[in-house]
Amino acid sequence: MRQFICAFALCAAATVIAAGPTVHVSKEGANRVVVSIETVGGVSAQAYNRSLKKNLELTGVFQIGQNGQIRVTGAPGGAVTATGAGKQITSTASVTDDKSARMAARAFSDAILQAHTGKRGFAQDRIAFVNRKGPDNAELYMCYPDGYDIRQLTSDRRAAVGPRWAPNKNDIYYTGFLQRTPLVYRLDAATGRRSLLAQFKGLATGAAVSPDGKSCAIVLSYQGNPELYVLDFATKRVTRMTRTKNASEASPCWSPDGSQIAYVSDETRHPQVYIVDVAARKSRRLTNMGSENTNPDWDANGRLVWCTKRGGQNYVAVMDPAQGERSTRLVTDAGSWEHPSWAADGRHVVASRDNALFIIDTDSEGDRPVRLFNNAGNWMNPAWSR
C-alpha cells in the first residue's frame, strides 16, 4: 500500500522530495471590537467568563479589554447582557454547574457575533480528534473550540483514525481497526452507539458523507488497489469514481453542492489533490506546486484547505478551486501541519502540529494559531462539525 495511505493509517511517511516555490500573502488583521466582561457572582461565574472570553477572542472579531465598546454585565444563571455598538443582547440561560456555564457562554458568544456581524459562530460546534497512545492504539475524542469538556469516545485499544462528521452534526464516521483490517464505522456522538458501515473485502477508509446526507465518498480496495467510490446509503450500491490501477486514493471531501469530490492520489508517485465530477466520473488534477499535497477539506463557501509540503516542511494552504492554484495562500508558517478542517464560518481551520491541535484564522495574517488545549498526548486528525 502506498506511502500516503500508510500515513493515514498511523505509519509516518519519511520521504523528502524537492519542493516547488513558496508564496506567502501578507495582510493586516482587521481592527477588533473591544469587549469588557464585567459579570460578577452567579453560578460558576469563573467557568462562564473563561469560556466566553476564549470564544469571543477566537472569532477574530473581538478582543477582551477594559472600557470596551461592548460591556458584558450580569450574573450567569440570571440575566447576562452585552450592551454597546448600538445593540443589546440578553441571555437568561440556565446555569447549574461549570459545564452548563460553559455551554451558556458558548451560546452567548455566538449570539454576540451574530448580532454584530450577521455571521454564524462556531463556539457550539464540536471538534472530533484522535489521541494516538501506541503503535496500534489510537482513540477518538471530542471537545469544543474553547478546548474545554474533552470527552473520550472510544476505548478499544485499537487504531481509530480519520473522523469525519456527518451533516447532522451528531454522527461521526471513522476508520477503525477492530477487525485488524481497516473498516468504516459510524459512531453516534450522543449515545456512543457504533455500527459498521458495510462489510467489504479488503480495506475501507476515509468515509465522507455528502452534503445531502444520502451517500458517502469512500476508499475501497475490494476490486484491487484503493480506489474512490460513492456509497448510496439507501441502496448500498457503490459507484466507482476512479480507475488508477497503479495508484492509491485517499482523503475524499465533497464540494458544497455535492457535485464534486476532492481527493488525494499518488498517480504521479507523489500525493496530489484531484477533483472528480461525480456525475461524469471524470477527474482533473488540482495541485502541482509542492512536493506533496494532502488532507483536503472543502468549506461551505467553496474554498479548499489542504496541507502542502514545500522545502521539506508542511504548510496549511487555502485556495478557490474555481480559480486554481493562482489563488493559493499559505496561512501558516512552516511546520509539521496535518489534517486541516474548516469551521462553519469558512474562516477558521483546526489542524494538528507537533502532537497538538491548533485553531488557525485564515483571514488574519498577524494572528498566531491558538492551541486548542495543553493536555499531554499525541493529538491528531481533527475534524470540525459544521
- Please state the average pLDDT score: 91
Unreliable segments of 5+ consecutive residues: 1-29
Taking strands numbered 1, 2, ... along the chain, how are they ordered across the largest sheet? 2-1-3-4-5
Radius of gyration in whole Å, from Cα? 21 Å
CATH architecture of the largest domain: 6 Propeller
* CATH fold group of the largest domain: Neuraminidase
Keywords for this entry:
386 residues, mainly beta, Neuraminidase, 2 domains, 4-stranded antiparallel beta sheet, disordered N terminus
Would you kindly provide a written description of the structure presented here, covering whatever features stand out?
The protein has 386 residues and is mainly beta. It has two domains: 33-117, 2-Layer Sandwich (Dihydrodipicolinate Reductase, domain 2); 127-384, TolB, C-terminal domain (Neuraminidase). Helix content is 10%, strand content 41%. A five-stranded mixed sheet has the order 2-1-3-4-5, covered by helices on one side. A four-stranded antiparallel sheet has the order 8-7-6-29, with no helix packed on it. Helix 2 (45-58) packs parallel to helix 3 (98-117). The chain is globular.
